[in-house]
Specification:
Strand content: 25-35%
CATH topology of the largest domain: Spore Coat Polysaccharide Biosynthesis Protein SpsA, Chain A
Radius of gyration: 17 Å
Structural class: alpha/beta
Number of strands: 14
Helix content: 25-40%
Number of domains: 2
Distance between the termini: 27 Å
Oligomer: single chain
CATH class of the largest domain: Alpha Beta
Order of helices and strands: EEEHEHEHEEHEEEEEHHEEH
CATH superfamily of the largest domain: Spore Coat Polysaccharide Biosynthesis Protein SpsA, Chain A
């Protein structure tokens, strides 16, 4: 199975490090976030990887070269010309994926010990278009699910904004973990829905959920750190040795 690591972001909440470096190369206990995610995927036999780059792209490329991909085969999807966000980045990387085969995505700045074997088993049992990790942690933006963990919508608790794909009562709010498993046909469905250029994967989920089965895999209780801000490094270092 292939996987894509999103490592192109500007890391605006991670200054001053990101004034001179990409966030993906920030170090936790002697290893960069990028290295940790590559090694995490490798634990599950996933060694054919795509990494997208934009902010200080050459530093990421050089780190991959110097470390020989940390034992994995790495392809670079270069977004130096335009930052495309997660959805646009995935669509741009389509030529790197093997046609007809499932694949995973994750964000370079997320550290977790979610058991990918369990996620894959969940996906194979329920046969959705997309399965992704979710937990019951506190956040400001939630994905909304029915009792069977089918994605039905999204809510921003700070602004009150909601986007509902499947109207239901009693929707369950859960936080998105960014680790997702896709069927290859998602590319055709994205293009048919008119997605192009710069867009988020969450926008894809909400649009495709109207007609496709998209499910959340609850892994609450697993270790999880969003290393989105510099102050998160200390927390990550205390949890991931």
């Amino acid at each position: 199975m292939q996987a894509m690591i999103f490592a192109a972001g500007l890391g605006t909440r991670f200054k001053p490090w990101t004034d001179q470096h990409p966030k993906a190369l920030a170090v936790v206990n002697g290893k960069s976030l990028l290295q940790r995610n590559i090694e995490y995927l490798k634990e599950y036999g996933i060694t054919n990887l795509i990494i997208n780059v934009h902010h200080f792209a050459e530093q990421v490329k050089e780190a991959v070269r110097e470390n020989k991909g940390w034992g994995s085969h790495i392809s670079i999807s270069d977004e130096s010309g335009e930052l495309l966000e997660t959805g646009g980045g995935l669509l741009k990387a389509k030529p790197f994926f093997k046609e007809g085969q499932k694949f995973m995505t994750c964000n370079a700045d997320i550290l977790t010990d979610l058991d990918l074997h369990r996620l894959i088993a969940f996906h194979e049992k329920n046969k959705p278009l997309i399965s992704f990790g979710i937990t019951n942690r506190v956040t400001s933006r939630y994905l909304l699910f029915d009792k069977d963990m089918r994605l039905c919508g999204w809510r921003n608790t700070k602004t009150g904004e909601e986007k509902i794909s499947i109207p239901q009562k009693g929707l369950v709010p859960m936080a998105y973990s960014t680790i997702a498993l896709f069927e290859y046909k998602v590319f055709d469905l994205m293009e048919a829905a008119g997605f192009k250029g710069k867009f988020s994967l969450v926008d894809v989920y909400l649009e495709l959920a109207k007609d496709q089965l998209i499910m959340g895999f609850d892994h609450s209780g697993d270790r999880f750190v969003d290393v989105g801000k510099t102050e998160s490094i200390g927390l990550a270092a205390s949890i991931f040795t």
